[in-house]
Amino acid sequence: MREIRYTPSHEWLRLEDDGSVTVGITGYAQELLGDLVYVALPKEGESFSQGQEAATIESVKAAADVTMPVDGTIVMVNTLLIDEPNLVNEAPESDGWFFRILPSAPSQLEGLMGSLAYQHQINP
Hints:
The glycine cleavage system catalyzes the degradation of glycine. The H protein shuttles the methylamine group of glycine from the P protein to the T protein. Belongs to the GcvH family. The protein is an alpha+beta fold. The strands form two sheets. It has a six-stranded antiparallel sheet. A three-stranded antiparallel sheet has the order 4-6-7. A hairpin with a 4-residue loop joins strand 1 and strand 2. The longest helix has 8 residues. It is globular and about 35 Å long.
């Protein structure tokens, strides 16, 4: 199984074999937001700094930002979410991923939480 990291703002990151990182929101975040009805994705080739807004999501309850977990460049987006934002509702930590990045500062990944630390954050 590939390594998964988490941010305090409830994004998950899956480290891929090619050095890229797939990003989505956790099931916990999806439950808090409720059913997603709209997703605005970044463009391939765009670069972002850690903490910068990279995507926007809207649910029946609220709007939220998906922030960049590490510095990097978008190398792929999940265009299925444009017409089917409900994929995030159904499988937030698999099919409902938002984008894939190529980190420009891979060492930033070390500062993110592992699964156990994330579980402690959401269930103190």
